[in-house]
Structure formats: C-alpha cells, structure tokens
Amino acid sequence: MACKTVFAFLLVFSAIGCHTSGDPPNAGPLASHGAALSPGTAEVVSAALRTLVTSSKLPTLRWPDFRDVSGDTTKFYENRFYAPAWVNAAGPTAQARLVVSILQKAAQKGLNPEDYDASRWPAREEALAANATPEEIARFDLALSVCLLRYVSALDVGRINPQHLKFDLDLNHRVTDLPEFLSQISQSDDIAPLLDKAEPQEDGYSRTSQALRTYLALAQQDPAEKLPVPEKPVAVGGTYAGMALLVTKLKLVGDLPQGATLLEGSVKYEGDVVEAVKRFQLRHALAVTGSLGPETVRQLNVPIVDRVRQLQFALERWRWLPHDLATPLIAVNVPAFRLYGFDEPHHIGLKMNVVVGKAMRSETPAFIGNMTYLVFRPDWGVPPTIMRKEILPPLQKDSAYLSKNGYDLIDASGKVLNAGQVTPEEIQLLRAGKLSVRQRPGPKNALGSVKFMFPNTYLVYLHDTPKTELFSRSRRDFSYGCIRVQDPPALAAWVLQSKPEWTRERIQAAMNGEKSVQVNLSSPIPVLILYATARVDEDGRVDFYDDIYGHDARLAQALAKGYPY
Description:
The protein is of the alpha+beta class.
C-alpha cells in the first residue's frame, strides 16, 4: 500500500503517521484585503515588478540572486498580470503581515530566518507606511514573494539538492505547485493549514520538529562551562569533581528528573545520577555501562546548539525523501548502525543492529533501492579493490592461500581454474584484472549464509557475516560498504512474509544447506540507505549519533553559502 516514507536521520527512522505542526502566530481568519492601489500607482508598480522579475535580481534581498525561483516568480506574477500580491492602499495586507511573522520564526522549522530576510522586514514595513513610491512597493512585494517561494520550497523538498552532496536521492517528488500555492496564501483567510501541507506529513518528521523547538529553548539555558574529563572512567561509587555541573546538564536534557533527590555538595557518583548517565549513553549510541568515561563526558560537553544543528539537518534530509513508497520497506540509518523494517505505515515490525562501511575508506552510500530477491548459501565474487588489498598480499606469501580459505580462481569466461597452487603468472593476471576470485559458500564466506539483493550501481547489499563479534561494539563501521545484519534469519523471515511456505524452519535449513538457493520476492521491497545524526523515536526519545562520514559538516558548509543553492 502506498504511503510516505520513514528517516532516521532516517534514518530514518521512526513510525509513519500524520503531521502536526506548531501553530504560527495570529493563526485564524484574517482581516479584509483593504482598498486597492489607485489605477495610476498600480500601473507603475506593475511595470516596476515586470522589470525586477525579468532581471532575477533584487539588491535589497539578503540573497539578491533569485534564479532558483525565477521561473515560479515569473509564473506567479504573469498569472496576476504583474499586479502586487501583498500590498494595498493601506500598506502590507493582513496576509503579508502574517507571512512575515512566519518567516521570522523559520528557525522553528529548522531553517535560517535570515535566509528569508527576517531582520529586514520591519524597515520595509515602515517604508511602506511613509508614502512609499511605486518602486518601493514593487520591491516589497517581490521580496516577500521570493522569500515565501524559497521558504515553501525548503519545507517541501529541502534547500539543497542531495545529489550535490553525493546522496543519490531524486528530488522530482515535489507535490506543490509553488505559483498556485502563493496565490492561495495571498488570498486566504487561514494561512496556517496551507503552509502545513507543504511539509512532510510523517510522524517522525513532526516529532523531529517538536524536538527542535524543545532544543532551541534548551540552548538558551545551556551552561557554557565544560565538565572536567576524568583521567580514567569514574565507576559507580567513585568521586567526580564535576558532579554539580553533571547534574545540571542531565536535568537540562531530561535524563535526570527535575525532582531527583541528591545530596547537595556531594561529589560521589551514585544513585539517580548513574541511572541518568545510562539513559544519556543509550541516547548517544554509547556503551551503556553507567561509568563516567572520557567519551561520555565528551558527548555531555557537546553544546546544545550543536544538537539543534543535528535536528535541523535531520529535518532537511527528511524533506529529501520521496513522498510515496510502498510498504513493507526497510530503512537503514548509517550513523545509528540500525536497520528498521516497516511492515505498515505506522508500525516498525523489525529492528536490529548493523555494521556499515568504514569511515574515510569504504563509506556506505546513501540511496534508495528495491530488494527483489535473496540468496541462501551465497558465493562471493570478491571485488577488485578488496582482492588487491586483502587477497593478493597473503597469496604472494602462500600460493595455497586461496584453496585454504575457500576461494576459487576464475578466468574471464567464468571457468573455475585450479587454485591449489597459484602460479606467479596467475598472480600477475589477477593484479591486471584478467582473472578474478570467488569465495565458495561455507562457514568462512564473507557474506555468511544469506544475502539480500537490491541491485544498484554501488554493488551494496545486506548480508550475514561470520564476524558476529562486531555487533557488540557501540561504533560499527567496519565493512567495505555493504551492510552486515545482526539477525539474518529474522530479516529473511520478515522479507518473506508474503511467502508463507518459507517458515523459519525452512529458512534455517536453507541457511545451513549445501546448495545456493535464490528466492525471488513477490514484489520489490524499497530499501532506504539514509544518514541522520538525530532521530526521535515513537516514544519521543531524542537520540544523537556521531557524524561518522562528515556529511553534517559538508551540509553545513553548503548551507552557509546561501541562496541560490
């Protein structure tokens, strides 16, 4: 069934449902539009608007070059025969004043108010009240149209094209006709519901928006002082010189209840504070030990404004997602090292840990694919890069390395060669790419007992692994780009729900069998490989993750350049 997709960051990341936005100021029926401009003034204003719109530049804007919305701006004013939309004989319309108020509170939507001229509107309104010239009226009207077009577009599909940041996501899912949307707003007596429609409607997006508003308020109370980093982890019952500040920080973010009873002036690390630290560790993807180590203190010392930014970027990436995807679907949030299976729009039916690509070396890409089949007892065609790094070095030392580790030597036609003793000539052909290596099914196979295939240009897929010890780590970026799953039988059962003949017993038998077995799915399952360093779960818990690939940092740099992005 069709539905809008989940995040995670997104990752993703939480159950899908209806969106409820914060109420904008002065919501409700608006005053009448007021008297129109005189015919002579209106004619001059229209001529000035036509000239400004054609130029695609307005020097009075914070970001004067509006080529990013020039087509929508032109269509909007052409439909009006270049009559002003936001100004009448009394000055700015009631709609204009409300739109300005909304733009000035853009931070609550994860946007930068100055991108929409927040601080410039009071002076513009004053200028209109003082016998403004037709040219000033035209500049005000166009400035508001451009800023509102940018604002609505940002809410609809985000500010940045994700493909510019190597996120393989297609933004051709816009559902809003921007010129028509502006026309409705300029004439509406109830603007708030219209603007709500421009945003993603998922519950996860709404919860992230609410968390952002909460953290914006918390940022005003965040103490500037940093917690002292202990030389070694402080165990339960130990002493910690920063206890008073630790209590303040834990209460601020809600991990320690405000009413918790603590002995004033005590430096002993115990009781409710330990439990609060555990909750904090859980929310920040740390090992939940309860001990106060350097990494936990580092996370505690991250300023709240940085957490605000993580939530803002999570909202931006929510907006990049397609509006309609079928369920069931699978979402992987890379920095959270987690997989979620949505078996219906409002329900997460499966969760598990994953191992993802190594940072700086073999990062897992962000994209959307369609799972079409899975293979039990797979073989593994070793990619050339891995073959050169992992196979050739030990093979040069031991010519029997391939046979000892379950590998076959393959020629260009796909024929299996004798790999008992690899000759120096064959090693040269391997290095030149004229021969390849394939690992046979078995306990040593890097893909384990099952792989889940969603064909893509990155050659990335989900699979089992013999290296199960890595799932106990709090940070799990160890792969060459593919995604290793912690509970392959559970994922296989979930993926094969539409095939009742594939019971858990049959799945387990196939994973332990002698032959490779391919099972085609009844219908494709969307797979979202996403990246979000903040996620709000179904219970409202706000989780944060490290920016392991630096995607947040690159997004910040891109956004700092301003419009047109």
